[in-house]
């Protein structure tokens, strides 16, 4: 349109921003021509790469196009491959009445903006909206709508062909199938990897994706995200994850070079974030904040013309709602954190004089990891339990003498703190008060006494495990791997945190699950994974302190092994347990009848432990998480900042733009015509 305007004698004046975008536009034309013609001659029968017809509007106006070739490829609706912009260019070149009818219908049908392709895949748009709403942190307000959409998608999924009939549709279908797989699996539907991993079975499709990976960045991004929810023995997902990761790393490494296509604002950052921090290690609140801040232009799906867009006003309203929702939660979190700090001080735990002071860390972990209702008491209950576990664990590990610990452990078993003094008395009194406060808040009257006994049993088991580990340390006893894990999965305290919370999340949660001999499979996997995560990041410190650790025990039992091999062994066990855990959490018809809210809270807490111990021991750090805490609790999202990290070529002068156009009109056109030959020239 710029070239047509200039040819008509219009004096165009561009802002500095427009100049940069225009320069990028010519740059993209160069990439399109290179992609479709110079390196890969088009085979229309197979459509292994996007046809130049699909990008007809990218050709210079002075470039001669065979009208018969255009007319031969008109679709039944009068479009060129369902592309409005290519069809508009075809009409200007041929004057076809069929093209005009398509364009006039489209303008009337879409008064708020013509889409990149038409007809639109309405199911794809709905999937994109569900994904967008969830990532903005608004899912709690649209639960019924999301459920209805995904039920319909799941119903239609079984009727669809596994692979596209036309290679031109590979990108759109793969994007849609990968997105549907992730959303449906996260919602509890039974979907198999084959519903989107079909592309792995076709060498020509893999070649097409590899050759065009820069243009398919968002497709690969979606494929990679779909593999986050991997179960055991899903080898197709492992292959898809490795394949997409390799090409994403290649794409982002090229995205800032002068001779490559620009990735839309925010996508480069999102991809780097995804590759650097696995989904299982990220907290929902911070992910939602990033999506709010990076979605200034509503990128829902990358296609031919960069992306489908929400109507601008609708997108602004959604982001505004997400921003207000985020700030409302922050106001609740800030008040609760201050309340928690007062409790920690009044109970004597905050100023006990030893160990780690982790009040803010504990509250941040539960608040930022889950979307509990704003009025939920669970956040404070979980945070208080976590604080008490941290102090008591440090007392058994470092501060307390063996005699003090034996006396305290017996007092816990009797649930009687008479004659306790000093630190032991502070810990016991804080524990007793906390347990009674939790029991009073539990409003299921018929189960009240069972609930109280269940919580006490859990605490007695946890303190008992700490005493066993201290005895092992004092006597130099070396446990077997299985013996150590049986005690270690209790001493980590993960079940002590999560089981009381589940009783508050759903009154349908069985009280029997509080009994030490009756923990559910999902809880046991969570306990084991929490211990293994801690051990992979604490073995160096515990080796110095002379304490047991899963990594060190494996090293002892395998004299020829090296420390890296022992770490890899423990991580391998952790990976399998995490996959099994996800399968129980995400499958509605799993072996355990546990309310979905309790399953999802298990997942939230699992992600917390992965966050703390992914690549280092963040829980023991002094300041590593302070910035994230501020973002989650105090600092509102930044919606006013301008895009600054997007690469764009330097702004050209008007003469430079005309020179670029002229170069393509003459020299380059002749070059790529010679390369593709007469028969396939468009």
From TrEMBL:
<dbReference type="InterPro" id="IPR008949">
    <property type="entry name" value="Isoprenoid_synthase_dom_sf"/>
</dbReference>
<keyword id="KW-0479">Metal-binding</keyword>
<dbReference type="InterPro" id="IPR001906">
    <property type="entry name" value="Terpene_synth_N"/>
</dbReference>
<dbReference type="InterPro" id="IPR036965">
    <property type="entry name" value="Terpene_synth_N_sf"/>
</dbReference>
<dbReference type="InterPro" id="IPR008930">
    <property type="entry name" value="Terpenoid_cyclase/PrenylTrfase"/>
</dbReference>
<dbReference type="Pfam" id="PF03936">
    <property type="entry name" value="Terpene_synth_C"/>
</dbReference>
<feature type="domain" description="Terpene synthase metal-binding">
    <location>
        <begin position="345"/>
        <end position="580"/>
    </location>
</feature>
<dbReference type="Pfam" id="PF01397">
    <property type="entry name" value="Terpene_synth"/>
</dbReference>
<dbReference type="InterPro" id="IPR005630">
    <property type="entry name" value="Terpene_synthase_metal-bd"/>
</dbReference>
<keyword id="KW-0460">Magnesium</keyword>
<protein>
    <submittedName>
        <fullName>(E,E)-geranyllinalool synthase isoform X2</fullName>
    </submittedName>
</protein>
<dbReference type="InterPro" id="IPR050148">
    <property type="entry name" value="Terpene_synthase-like"/>
</dbReference>
<feature type="domain" description="Terpene synthase N-terminal">
    <location>
        <begin position="96"/>
        <end position="275"/>
    </location>
</feature>
């Amino acid at each position: 349109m710029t070239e047509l305007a200039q040819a008509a004698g219009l004096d165009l004046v561009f802002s500095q921003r427009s100049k940069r975008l225009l320069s990028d536009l010519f740059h993209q034309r160069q990439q399109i021509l290179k992609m479709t013609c110079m390196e890969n001659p088009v085979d229309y029968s197979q459509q292994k790469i996007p046809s130049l017809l699909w990008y007809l509007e990218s050709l210079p106006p002075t470039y001669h196009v065979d009208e018969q070739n255009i007319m031969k490829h008109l679709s039944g609706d009068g479009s060129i491959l369902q592309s409005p912009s290519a069809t508009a260019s075809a009409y200007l070149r041929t004057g076809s009445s069929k093209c005009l009818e398509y364009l006039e219908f489209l303008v009337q049908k879409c008064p708020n903006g013509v889409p990149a392709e038409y007809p639109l895949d309405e199911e794809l748009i709905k999937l994109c909206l569900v994904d967008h709403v969830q990532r903005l942190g608004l899912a709690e307000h649209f639960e019924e709508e999301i459920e209805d959409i995904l039920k319909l998608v799941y119903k239609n999924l079984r009727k669809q062909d596994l692979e596209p009939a036309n290679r031109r549709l590979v990108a759109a279908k793969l994007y849609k199938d990968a997105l549907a797989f992730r959303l449906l699996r996260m919602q509890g539907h039974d979907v198999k990897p084959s519903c989107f991993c079909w592309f792995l079975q076709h060498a020509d499709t893999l070649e097409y994706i590899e050759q065009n990976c820069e243009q398919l960045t968002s497709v690969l991004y979606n494929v990679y995200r779909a593999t986050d929810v991997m179960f055991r023995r899903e080898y197709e997902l492992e292959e898809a994850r490795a394949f997409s990761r390799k090409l994403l790393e290649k794409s982002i490494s090229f995205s800032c070079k002068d001779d490559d296509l620009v990735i839309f604002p925010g996508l480069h950052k999102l991809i780097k974030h995804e590759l650097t921090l696995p989904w299982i290690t990220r907290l929902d609140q911070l992910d939602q904040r990033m999506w709010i801040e990076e979605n200034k232009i509503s990128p829902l799906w990358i296609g031919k013309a960069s992306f489908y867009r929400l109507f601008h006003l609708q997108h602004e309203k959604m982001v505004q709602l997400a921003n207000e929702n985020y700030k409302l939660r922050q106001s609740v979190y800030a008040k609760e954190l201050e309340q928690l700090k007062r409790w920690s001080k009044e109970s004597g735990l905050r100023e006990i004089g030893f160990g780690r002071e982790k009040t803010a860390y504990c509250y941040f972990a539960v608040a930022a990891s889950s979307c509990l209702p704003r009025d939920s008491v669970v956040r404070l209950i979980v945070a208080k339990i976590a604080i008490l576990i941290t102090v008591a664990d440090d007392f058994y590990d470092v501060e307390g003498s063996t005699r003090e610990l034996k006396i305290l452990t017996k007092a816990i078993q009797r649930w009687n703190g008479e004659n306790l003094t000093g630190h032991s008395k502070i810990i016991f009194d804080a524990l007793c008060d906390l347990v009674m406060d939790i029991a009073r808040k539990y409003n299921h009257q018929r189960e009240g006494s069972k609930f109280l006994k269940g919580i006490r049993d859990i605490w007695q088991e946890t303190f008992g495990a700490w005493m066993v580990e201290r005895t092992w340390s004092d006597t130099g006893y070396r446990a077997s791997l299985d013996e150590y894990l049986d005690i270690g999965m209790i001493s980590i305290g993960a079940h002590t945190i999560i089981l009381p919370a589940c009783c508050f999340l759903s009154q349908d949660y069985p009280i029997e699950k509080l009994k030490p001999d009756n923990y559910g499979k999902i809880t046991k996997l969570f306990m084991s994974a929490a211990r293994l995560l801690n051990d992979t990041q604490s073995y160096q410190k515990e080796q110095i302190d002379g304490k047991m650790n899963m990594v060190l025990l494996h090293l002892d039992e395998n004299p020829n092994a090296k420390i890296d091999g022992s770490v890899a062994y423990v991580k391998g066990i952790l990976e399998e347990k995490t996959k099994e855990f996800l399968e129980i959490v995400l499958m509605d018809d799993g072996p355990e009848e546990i309310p979905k809210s309790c399953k999802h809270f298990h997942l939230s807490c699992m992600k917390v432990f992965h966050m703390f111990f992914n690549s280092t021991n963040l829980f023991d750090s002094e300041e590593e998480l302070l910035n994230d805490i501020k973002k989650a609790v105090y600092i509102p999202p930044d919606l006013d900042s301008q895009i600054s990290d997007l690469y764009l070529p330097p702004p050209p002068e008007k003469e430079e733009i005309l020179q670029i156009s002229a170069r393509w009109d003459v020299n380059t056109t002749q070059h790529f015509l010679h390369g593709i030959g007469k028969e396939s020239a468009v």
